[in-house]
Specification:
It is elongated and about 80 Å long. The strands form 2 sheets. It has a 5-stranded mixed beta sheet, with no helix packed on it. A 5-stranded mixed beta sheet has the order 4-10-9-6-7. It has 2 domains: 74 residues, Helix Hairpins; 132 residues, Sandwich (Immunoglobulin-like). By secondary structure, the chain is of the alpha+beta class. 33% of the residues lie in helices and 26% in strands. The chain contains 3 helices and 10 strands; from the N terminus they run H-H-E-E-E-E-E-E-E-E-E-E-H. One of its GO terms (biological process) is ATP synthesis coupled electron transport.
Length: 227
């Protein structure tokens, strides 16, 4: 969960989100160095007298300011492509869950089980218990086992939605008539919150996502009790 006045990202829960955080820091450092260099050059031009008037016509300078940006772009593009392919890769998922977007709630179906499906509605503010989060709590949480690769199949039955959980680096559009997939794996148990991230109508702000990740033994007990 984010906290008040937070400036950075939420703590990473999945390996993909950890990679995204590293890439963010890597790119931010490059941007910081470029900004510092530009600011330094502007300061020099404003505070010193130009003595070498032919510097800007030199072949060497033109070569440097052509090659250097190309190298910087490569340093950004290579790790970006690596993470992009990692996010699309799904290797032997041990479970498949289908999430369907509706106006304005989510429904989940565990395709590896018979008759294990439910709707997930936001809990109204008047019904919240002490300690529960306003506009983020649901009546039925999506319970999944931790440390296992899980395939999420995401679609919609009416308009465009988006199934997003920031701490896991997940954001997949739910499109009517189309089935999108995403990989989900958590490194630790806990409650993780998300919301629909696509403007989908008047109650767009009221369709949260709550992911409860538990050890495999607890998940088996929960699934048995739900069947």
């Amino acid at each position: 969960m984010p906290y008040p006045l937070q400036l950075g990202f939420q703590d990473a829960t999945s390996p993909i989100m950890e990679e995204l955080l590293h890439f963010h820091d890597h790119t931010l450092m490059i941007v910081f160095l470029i900004s510092s260099l530009v600011l330094y050059i502007i300061t020099l031009m404003l505070t010193t007298k130009l003595t070498h008037t032919s510097t800007m016509d030199a072949q060497e300078v033109e070569t440097v300011w052509t090659i250097l940006p190309a190298i910087i772009l490569i340093l950004i593009a290579l790790p970006s492509l690596r993470i992009l392919y990692m996010m699309d890769e799904i290797n032997n998922p041990l479970m498949t869950v289908k999430a369907m977007g509706h106006q304005w709630y989510w429904s989940y179906e565990y395709t590896d089980y018979e008759d294990l499906n439910f709707d997930s509605y936001m809990i109204p503010t008047t019904d919240l218990k002490p300690g529960e989060l306003r506009l983020l709590e649901v009546d039925n949480r999506l319970v999944l086992p931790m440390e296992l690769p899980i395939r999420m199949l995401i679609s919609s039955e009416d308009v465009l939605h988006s199934w997003a959980i920031p701490s896991m680096g997940l954001k997949t559009d739910a499109i009517p008539g189309r089935l999108n997939q995403a990989t989900l794996m958590s490194t630790r148990p806990g409650l993780y919150y998300g919301q629909c991230s696509e403007i989908c109508g008047s109650n767009h702000s009221f369709m949260p996502i709550v992911l409860e990740l538990v050890p495999l033994k607890h998940f088996e007990n929960w699934s048995t009790s739900m069947l």
